[in-house]
Specification:
There is one protein chain. With about 425 residues, the protein is α/β, with parallel strands linked by helices. It has helices at about 35-40, 90-95, 100-120, 130-140, 165-180, 190-195, 245-260, 280-285, 300-310, 335-340, 350-360, 370-380, 385-400, 405-410; strands at about 15-20, 25, 25-30, 50-55, 65-70, 75-80, 125-130, 145-155, 185, 205-210, 230-235, 265, 295, 315, 345, 365. Helix 3 (about 100-120) runs parallel beside helix 4 (about 130-140), helix 4 packs across helix 5 and helix 7 crosses helix 12 (about 370-380). The longest helix has 17 residues, at about 100-120. The protein is globular.
Length: about 425
Amino acid sequence: MVRKNNIALSKESSILFATFSKWRDKKRLPTNGSIEPMRDFLVPKIKKLVIIDQLHPGSEGVMPKIEVYTNHNKNFKSYKSSWYIYLLKPLLFLFNTSSTQPIFKIRDFLSVIDWSFRDKTVFDYCIGLESVNALAGIFLRKIGRVGKVVYYVSDYSPNRYPSKLFNKIYLALDRFCATHADYIWDVSKAMQPARIKAGLDSKKSASVIHVSNGLYSDQIKASPIHKINKKDLVYMGVLTQNNGPDIAIKALPLVLKKIKDTRLHIIGGTDGINNDRIWLEKIVKKMNLSKSVIFHGFIADSLKMSETLRSCAIGLAPYRDIPGSIRRYADAGKIRAYCASGLPVVSSQVPPLGLEAAEKGAAIIANDDPKSFAKAIINIFIDEKLYSKLRKNAITFAKDSTWENTFLNAFKQM
């Protein structure tokens, strides 16, 4: 492999990126946010990029979408999997609900192998997001179709599944990929210690590279202090109980007792479905907070989302402290987005990035309950010096958090 500027890439390089995402209304949802950034990073730098996008269970379709980019051109050729992969289609539709489905994992493995045999390219790298895609890459390396394999991990938990059998299979696949890949890309530094505690032999592990989620450069911008709404809070993210948006809502009446006219903006909907906020709307109505809580729904445009964040004063990350939660080991993208927009953060003790932001003076850590969150919010609001210090540190904390830097640093370490 020719290295240029200490990067393990050249204009003749070829990469197979096997990943997944959800699709709705013929559009890829940004649930898995790394596909477009990876494409934008690699296409100008390498000769060929193939993206195999495995549609996640719960999407409007069930068959992989294959995009082939060549000669630094952002226009791609679209392909379908071979006819025999389509024999799985009836079963895939039968089990097309938003959860882990074994038949989809079989599809994922086969579709990567299928494309490799159809494509005459011997790829320099196969980057497999999650274990089944990486497993396919490891097989392809064994038969000489791939040079090196990257096991890219966006979520990890040693207790991911309630089913003991599912969890054993999940951990076994993770350990196999962690020991047989050439590199591991973990989005969080908390993942590898958890793997080792769960049984991975650290001496047999592939090299681990921290590849955090990033932002586009035009998202890293703070509004002048006089242009923000100084009493506005914001929660951005998936609207499930694990992420704690209801904690933010229930904290609001306590804040309003001390800070009148405080408002809470809620941005999000699980996988783009605004109906997922119905349970939160019931809480708002019950607590008579309709005038103080603003639901923005799912904002697909990252720039519009960032503009909304920049208009607020404090970002909230109230993840619940649940045993086995993947949030204990994942990369909390909302915290990075808050800091990039110049917002001080109030985070629970769950996400590693919240603890890291607190160490850098950009966040306050609270317990995962309304009283603790309300107390932290009030303390920031009433202390201008504290607010200014947190805001300054937040901006510094996120200033280099671009996707370009993330992937550049990863390839430099390979």
